[in-house]
Amino acid sequence: MRKVVAIANQKGGVGKTTTSVNMAACLAGEDCRVLLIDLDPQGNATSGLGIDRLECEASIYDGLVDDRPLEELIIATNTENLDLVPSTTDLAGAQIELVEHPRREFRLRETISRFESDHDFIIFDCPPSLGLLTLNALAAANTVLVPIQTEYYALEGLGHLLQTIELIHEHLNPALSLEGILLTMYDGRTNLSEQVASEVSSHFGELVFETIIPRNVRLGEAPSFGMPITEYAGSSRGARSYRDFAREFLARNGRTNMPATA
Questions:
Q1: What DSSP character marks residue 23?
Q2: Rounded to whole angstroms, how far apart are CA atoms 155 and 8?
Q3: Does residue 258 have a pLDDT over 70?
Q4: Ordered alpha helix ranges (H), the chain
Q5: pLDDT-derived band of residue 42, with 50, 70 and 90 as boundaries?
Q6: H/E element, 7
Q7: 134-148 per-position pLDDT tens digit
């Protein structure tokens, strides 16, 4: 059965979209069929996969607001096994248009429930807020993956996010659980990164993935070329770390994974 993962953190700049795009691409590289849904009105996951938002005839907005079937919204990417439902500027108005809808928190779940496909994973790239779009993602997902940057304010707001996840589990989506916490933007040259990584690990134990995503120039460059890191700079530290993370994720989910890269 396919698994639905929301990648969420209400803080911006934590590597959420970078993780969404590269996790999806690396899972696709492990022979999984992956659908990435861009729920951020900024559309960075869409452009990060080389899709021009201005040329998209339909987007996730049409599924949420107009009940368009998901099958009609999917775009094939240049990465084998990886499909995309894009975001366009229309999505910025969706939160306002859905406010008076009686089942506004369940629009995405209903769209997904009608979708028949052989995708192994559906991944939501959520906006940096706990607004209606993120609530839709959490109401539709099986698990939540939380990226946290290894910087001073890493834990700020995390308690609020975890409380929100618990409330949604209780009231909207009993199937929702926490997939885990991924440490990002790690700089081994600084004591601060090490201290934050140690603090997060001591607080959350096995929920924290062993793989840590480093601060890497190539990771920052890849989106401007419309490529995941594995295609832009496949031998870089950033590419190796996301491959290792994807394999660790698969292992946690009982899937056969390859040995970690050197």
A1: H
A2: 14
A3: no
A4: 16-29, 44-48, 60-66, 94-97, 107-113, 132-140, 158-171, 191-204, 217-221, 229-232, 237-252
A5: very high
A6: strand 3-7
A7: 999 999 999 999 999
Query: Using N-to-C axis directions, what is the helix angle for 132-140 and 158-171, rounded to 10°?
Result: 60
Pair of tokens at residue 190? 């600084």
Report the candidate in 170, 195, 166 with the shortest Cα–Cα distance to residue 183: 195
138 backbone dihedrals φ, ψ, rounded to 5°: -70, -30
Which single residue is written with the structure tokens 């108005």?
Answer: 93
Q: What is the mean pLDDT of the chain?
A: 92
Q: Would you list the DSSP string of 194-220?
A: HHHHHHHHHHHGGGEEEEEEEP-HHHH
Please tell me the distance from the alpha carbon of residue 109 to that of residue 138, in angstroms, as a whole number. Answer: 9
Q: Region 225-233: what's the mean pLDDT?
A: 97
Assess contact for 197 and 186: CB atoms under 8 A.
yes
CA distance 196 to 163: 21
Percent of the chain with pLDDT over 70: 97
Burial class (CB in 10 A: 0-12, 13-18, 19+), 157: middle
7 DSSP β-pair partners: 125, 145
pLDDT above 60 for 81: yes
Residue 158, pLDDT score = 84
The residue to which tokens 């590597």 are assigned: 15
The number of beta carbons lying within 10 Å of the beta carbon of residue 38 is: 31
CATH (residue range 3-250) = 3.40.50.300
pTM: 0.94
Instruction: Give the count of alpha carbons within 13 A of 9, CB side only.
Output: 26
Burial classification of residue 260, based on how many CB atoms lie within 10 Å of its CB (0-12 exposed, 13-18 middle, 19 or more buried): middle
Pairwise CA distance, residues 77 & 227, whole Å: 10
Q: What is the mean pLDDT of residues 194-209?
A: 91
